[in-house]
């Protein structure tokens, strides 16, 4: 009986490899825009994929978004947004994971790359008598 339970538990906890990960023929692009009054750092990460040699890997890209309205004086382009393009592998629903950080990660979510622009927000809040910034993104 004990071997049966151990065998059953091992089958239940083996990762399912039958779930197909979507990789598109053409990249899908989306924008992350900073609507906060501070610089935001972050990353965009795909789902894991298994290489032919068996190693699991994922792809990521990092970004730095200057405060809302910041413009590069040399080029005239806004520095408060960044465009990302990806072919996947996507999480279910063509989603990628976005993580926002200052010195440490402060917010993470999965968002659909087809749902439109992702916006980053910041709000001053009082916690235990200390003013801090709450940072989050609108994810879909």
Report on the architecture of this protein.
It is a single chain. The chain is mainly beta. It has a single domain (21-138), classed as Immunoglobulin-like, CATH 2.60.40. Helices cover 8% and strands 45% of the residues. The chain contains 1 helix and 10 strands; from the N terminus they run αββββββββββ. The protein has a 4-stranded mixed β-sheet with strand order 6-1-9-10, with no helix packed on it. A hairpin with a 3-residue loop joins strand 7 and strand 8 (105-112). The protein is globular and about 50 Å long. Mean pLDDT is 84; it is low at 1-19.
Secondary structure elements and pairings:
Layout: H1 2-12, E1 28-34, E2 40-45, E3 49-50, E4 56-57, E5 60-65, E6 81-86, E7 95-101, E8 105-112, E9 118-127, E10 130-138
Parallel strand pairs: 1-9
Antiparallel strand pairs: 1-6, 2-5, 2-7, 3-4, 7-8, 9-10
List keywords for this structure.
140 residues, mainly beta, Immunoglobulin-like, 4-stranded mixed β-sheet, 1 helix, 10 strands, 45% strand, globular
On the 0-100 scale, what is the average pLDDT? Answer: 84
Low-pLDDT parts are 1-19
Note the beta-strand portion.
Answer: over 45%
Total helix count? 1
Name the helix and strand elements from N-terminus to C-terminus, one letter apiece.
HEEEEEEEEEE
Report the count of strand segments: 10
Can you give the helix content as a percent range? under 10%
* Distance between the first and last residues' Cα: 47 Å
Strand order of the largest sheet: 6-1-9-10
